[in-house]
């Protein structure tokens, strides 16, 4: 007669002891969102990856074209030439605007920085799912890296812009130093919006198809090809429209760059309180966009 032996149940450690053991050895829940300070630290630790990834993307962007990196400067210049013919010549927006070509080229270059940052940011997650799923890293590194890529491209274009300014008699001025804080604020704004759009684009890929239409409309109301200052002086515009035009973030950063670089663009042409507005947009979009993206990190970690 066989004897059945009862197997004792396995001894289970209390949940509190397991949590303490995991914490002692630095273990965490898979896919869990890190704390905000920890997330910022992880991003800082990967700063070299972020800049290297941006540089690699910039180098590869025109690798198949015969002119190569020359297109980094030629593309915005050709856009400026088209806008000059259509808006400056045919529609006459250059009338009453001193140094219209430097005015236009500066607007096109600065606007392209914002436009391209948001466009590539929208696809930062959805267009790099292989990288997201294969490697563990803070996903905010992707939209930030793409914005750095666009900043690098703008700096290439700025070299051509300086040549254009000098050719059209715009003198070198101490106000050119203001380009540094203006670009820093614009980059912060661009990166924040890019992170927001990266989250939306990851959830709803169709947003990437709508962005060109949204950005084109935004460009037309941002004073890229025409002077907002001249338009807002007309009494026929409702006050709310005037305020919206003057506080439009893209127009604010464009006007700051024009004020810094073009001596004929005077301070009276800037909207009231332009620097506080520029700082406010940078903080709202930059900080708000970063926190908004960080809150989705758990979702991306499981993707």
Description of the structure:
This protein has 303 residues and is mainly α. The chain has one domain. 67% of the residues lie in helices and 0% in strands. The chain has 14 helices and no strands. Helix 4 packs across helix 7. The N and C termini lie far apart (57 Å). The mean pLDDT is 84.
Descriptive key words:
mainly alpha
What's the end-to-end separation, in Å?
57 Å
Please state the overall shape, judged from the principal axes of the Cα atoms. Answer: globular
Largest sheet: none
Instruction: Give the number of helices.
Output: 14
Low-confidence stretches: none
Name the helicity range: 55-70%
Oligomer: single chain
What is the strand content? Answer: under 5%
Q: For the residues shown, what is the average pLDDT?
A: 84
Entry summary:
This protein has 303 residues and is mainly α. The chain is built from 14 helices and no strands. It has one domain (38-302).
Layout of helices and strands:
Blueprint: H1 15-24, H2 36-45, H3 47-61, H4 71-90, H5 100-122, H6 129-134, H7 141-167, H8 179-203, H9 207-220, H10 228-232, H11 239-247, H12 249-261, H13 274-294, H14 297-302
Helix pairs in contact: 3-7, 4-5, 4-7, 5-7, 5-8, 5-9, 5-12, 7-8, 8-12, 8-13, 12-13
